[in-house]
Amino acid sequence: MRPFLMLLFGSIFSLPLLAQSDIVGQWKGDIQVPGGKLGVIVFLETGPEGLSCKMDVPMQRAKGIVAEKTSFSENSLDIQFGSLAANYTGALQKSGIIKGTWTQNGMSFPLDLERFTGETTLERPQHPKPPYPYQIEEIKVQVGEPETHSIAGTLTIPEGEGPFPTAVMVSGSGPQDRDETLLGHKPFWVIADYLSRNGIAVFRYDDRSVGESTGDFASATTLDFKEDAIAVLREIAKHEKTDQSQIGIIGHSEGGLISALAASRHNEVKFIVMLAGPGVTGHEILKRQIRDISLAEGIDKKTLKKASNLNAEVIDLARAEGDMDEQKQKAKEKFRHHYETVLTDEERAEAGDFDLLFQTRIQPLFTPWMKTFLNLDPRKYIERISCPVLALIGGKDTQVSPQVNIPALTAALDAAPTTEWTVRELPDLNHLFQKSRTGAPSEYGEKIETFNQEVLVLIRNWIKDLPPN
User: Is the whole-model pTM more than 0.70?
Assistant: First the structure.
């Protein structure tokens, strides 16, 4: 589930003035955000139009972010990233290091750059390595009647005759590949590898319009993604090595919500595993998410309070009935009032251009997907589920709060027809089920752990212990 509030998160002697050519090259550094750091690689080069800049953020899989403006004068470097509503200013030191500051969303963080050659590699020891003691099949599923798009994925099948218990994996929000690749981690690949080494077949797939899948992601909602998941499950259930009486869905974040929607309406779903799946409405999730992530990232309570009323008003407009363009215009007016009357001159200078801020921070809330998500109440669907349910949330999850969602999930399942259900809060785990100190999203990429081993064992044992349905 996407966090709404995301952080991309001199010498005593005089230094001789340098020409632009002296700063050209590849530089690397860490944005020192509260609770962690975010590595960046900056590419400076000259061309017919002067100095230009691109930036990679390996931990966020972001490559080639183009700067709108780059200048170097009197040993001072200034880079403007309009698409990120961010800028970098730094001074080249005698030592050859650029000492500077990264500013984004009204907040400033130290960022010192040093020359760098080569490529960065992220330590991910859990990534599966061959040989694989299971079969691998690439499968495409046609969706819709008549066909509207296809979903491509990978089926991993344990050794042996079968049929095997089978899980279809459904990713969190945003366009995700079949491995749910994030910040160099591939959690779905790790889960599939472990389960298929332990007698459970797994199908993981690219979201529509991602990778080898086709279709329109931008206009789709959670309800549309549920239809994709059901179409996939029905097709995989036909495979000779899958057990139709023990086929279910493992969904992460929004995928957990999708698993509940599917299980409430389709008897083919024989079990679901909700990994950080929500138990309350999207607008409740988002309001709490902004609070928890801000505090985990070190945002002071005074700054958070200043923005809380605006956040709540904009979210309410995004989920309101009526014309979306009209609601968006109302949100823009509220945002302008906040920008012009609540922020100080210094805060406005740090925040940057109003129109760019609105375009990158507020406008994305006004989409069909977001409106559906904000208004969907998982409890209405969970209360209808009759198959076994395992719901897990990390105790340090700042995106799907355990304090809010564990009681809601428990109450909804207690009212449901199913008698086989477990809801657990897992101490010290974040939204990605990594051991975490704060739960802040800025820690995700720093962790070498992709998915906690104890949780892998828990999921395996729970599925293996299920009776045929």
Answer: yes
